[in-house]
Every structure is written in C-alpha cells, then in structure tokens.
Write a structure and sequence with these properties.
Order of helices and strands: HHHEEHEEEEHHEHHH
Shape: globular
Strand order of the largest sheet: 3-4-5
Number of strands: 7
Oligomer: single chain
Helix content: 25-40%
Structural class: alpha+beta
Strand content: 5-15%
Radius of gyration: 17 Å
C-alpha cells in the first residue's frame, strides 16, 4: 500500500453519530474505523461533513493535570510474529518495502504526508500519532484504563509515517499551534475523526483554528 498523502476521509459520519449508550463518554469507542478513516491514500474530503463532526465534539479546557507519561501509553506492541506496530505501519504505508530478521525494515519508499518529502531510509522516519499522545492525555481521557491507552497508542488508523523533522516540528501541538506544510485539510479531517472515534474533547482555540481552515477546504 502506498501512502502518498494524509488527505483522507469522507468522514465516518455513521461512527460519529453512534450514541455512547451506557459507556462513560471519556472511554474510547469500540467502533472500528471505516475504510475511509483507516486509509492513508489520496482522497478528497467532505469539508462540510468534517465541520459537522467537529461541531459535535465536546469543548473543554485542556486537562493539564492529566500529565502525559510515556510508560502509561505502551507502544509499540507486537502485531504479528516479530513485527511491532511501528514496523507494521512502515510496511503498509510504504512501497516496495523489504524486511530482514526480526521484521526490521531494510528498504522501501515513503512519501511523508506532512511535508511531501520522499524517503528511502526508514531510519529517518517517525511514526506519528495524528493526535499526539500528550494531547490525547489532555483531551478528556483521564478515565481511560491502561488497556484503553495501549489500544489508542497502537491503532494503525491514527498512525502515519512522516519525516522525523516534520514530526519534531509538530511535537504535541494541536491545530491551533501547528499544521503540516502539505494537505492541511486532509490532516484536519483525520484529526477530527480521531477525536470523534476516541471521544476526546477539543479546547476552544483548537476548535476555532480547525474550523477556520476547514472553511477554506
């Protein structure tokens, strides 16, 4: 599978509108991502649908008291055989990917969706969480169990292979503070879809910045 851009999502409206029922709203949804949500290929987004999905997210002040600790969000877990989540993502998002002993990625070609740079050395790639783990910790997830956090941290639908430089530039910023150089609309569609499926909150500045860009998509 070739991942040329993060421009994905004719948004999963059905998932977004699924009632929480008796589940705690702070607990991630068990619904599986739709094919569109999991796709990392080129696709047009339905900006109006993304805006509607954004409008349904709960607005709340960031929970800065829920401090992010890497050990609380276990990754990368083994997916199959010797392959962990990172190696799995590199394999499915690259073209001509080769692997060696222990599932180590030895070759391939990737196009980093954040900056459009073509990469042939996997060591120069980071596998980024669209909504960073620290941002997830601040977004209404205080009630998540360790298993919930592990599930999110290893979900291929929220992971993307990008250049290390672009990922370090992003850090744990939300869209009010950082947007990629390429395909801002697709990036925001995935951001909103991720927060919807995992029932995360948005702060007001994040929501306003996201809405402003989506109006131009």
């Amino acid at each position: 599978m070739i991942a040329r851009t993060i421009g994905v999502l004719a948004v999963a409206a059905a998932v977004a509108s699924t009632p929480a029922g008796c589940r705690d709203s702070r607990t991630p949804s068990t619904a599986k991502p739709t094919p569109a949500a999991a796709d990392h290929g080129t696709a047009r987004i339905d900006a109006a649908a993304v805006q509607a999905q954004l409008a349904r997210l709960r607005v709340a002040v960031e929970d800065t008291g829920n401090v992010y600790r890497r050990t609380d969000w276990p990754h990368w877990e083994t997916v199959s055989g010797a392959c962990d989540t990172r190696e799995h993502v590199l394999t499915i998002q690259g073209s001509g990917v080769t692997t060696g002993p222990g599932c180590k990625v030895t070759g391939g070609r990737w196009v980093s969706p954040y900056d459009g740079i073509t990469v042939t050395d996997a060591k120069t790639l980071d596998v980024d969480h669209v909504v960073p783990l620290a941002e997830a910790a601040r977004s209404g997830t205080r009630g998540w169990s360790r298993a919930d956090r592990q599930r999110y941290a290893n979900d291929p639908a929220v992971l993307v292979a990008v250049t290390a430089k672009s990922n370090r530039s992003k850090g744990d910023s939300d869209p009010a503070k950082w947007l990629p150089a390429k395909d801002k609309c697709g990036y925001l569609a995935r951001w909103v879809d991720t927060k919807t499926r995992y029932r995360m909150t948005v702060d007001q500045a994040e929501r306003d910045a996201t809405a402003a860009v989506l109006r131009r998509c």
